[in-house]
Design a protein that fits this description.
Blueprint (H helix, E strand, L loop, with lengths): L1 E2 L13 H10 L4 E5 L6 H10 L3 E5 L14 H14 L2 E10 L8 H18 L3 E6 L2 H10 L7 E3 L6 H9 L3 E4 L10 H6 L7 E3 L21 H12 L3 H15 L10
Parallel strand pairs: 1-2, 2-3, 3-4, 4-5, 5-6, 6-7, 7-8
Helix pairs in contact: 3-4
Length: 265
């Protein structure tokens, strides 16, 4: 299994990161994608990936980081991101996107401008995008109606929108990843959306340390919980867990162009 979105570099993993990874590999994972969220963690992430090929990285500026970064430095950061992507080592652009609650500290106009540049860099370097969208789907839809998507694809990370939104993103060629909320008792919209997404566009993630699946909800999530997410999705789809695990793994290998090592049989 491949966890397509795990913030392994988060401070909450500092006390026991090695143990977290040991549990993940024991749970059956053979790949984890760690998305960069801001300029300060890009270089350490690249080093992480060089040390273990099972850990691959994306590089980007998360919209929730923008309120903490001076607007006049946006272009400087994006030029540095361009240079790092040109150097190689990252398998995706992001995490990037739009965040409604962050608009107070980073106006949507600024968020859109930064996201456009991420999409431009993804097209330039032929890399897929890890897309965050929270309470900002109308703005993202308007952008994607006008902006060409990278040929390498867009992965809607921890998708939580409903069916109608999903149909738009499907029509645009997007892929979808689901996290712990698909196991929560009150989950409705993401489960309805899950049923209409083409099987070949489906992947899984933990978004650890956030969004822990049941029965760990409310605790720190970790990549070793990925089987719980797959079990929740399999229940909704009426499929055997093993079949869904294999399909989502194959989808991730294909989407990320075999960047993760294939485990020996």
């Amino acid at each position: 299994m491949i966890d397509t979105h795990c913030h392994l570099d988060a401070p909450r993993f500092d006390p026991d990161r090695d143990d977290v990874l040991t549990r993940a590999w024991a749970a059956g994972l053979h790949g984890i994608l760690v998305p960069g969220v801001g300029p300060d963690n890009w270089e350490p992430l690249c080093a992480l990936s060089r040390a273990d090929p099972r850990l691959q990285v994306g590089l980007g500026i998360h919209p929730q980081m923008l309120p903490h970064l001076p607007p006049e430095e946006d272009e400087e950061h994006l030029e540095r991101l361009d240079a790092l992507l040109a150097r190689g080592g990252a398998i995706a652009v992001g995490e990037c996107g739009l965040d409604g609650p962050s608009a107070e500290g980073a106006p949507m106009e600024r968020q859109l401008a930064v996201l456009r540049r991420h999409l431009e860099l993804a097209r330039k370097h032929d890399l897929p995008v890890l897309m965050h969208c929270f309470r900002a789907h109308p703005a993202l839809i308007e952008l994607l109606k006008r902006e060409p998507l990278p040929e390498a694809g867009v992965l809607m990370h921890s998708y939580g929108g409903g069916v109608d939104l999903a149909r738009f993103y499907i029509q645009k060629g997007c892929h979808f990843s689901f996290a712990g909320p698909v196991t929560w008792a009150e989950a409705r919209k993401p489960l309805d959306a899950l049923r209409v997404i083409p099987p070949e566009r489906l992947m899984v993630e933990t978004d650890a340390p956030d969004q822990a699946p049941a029965p760990h909800r409310g605790q720190r999530s970790e990549p070793g919980y990925l089987p719980r997410v797959i079990e929740g999705m399999a229940r909704v789809l009426g499929e055997p867990v093993e079949v869904l695990a294999q399909r989502t793994t194959e989808n991730a290998h294909r989407f990320f162009r075999e960047a993760f090592p294939t485990p020996s049989r």
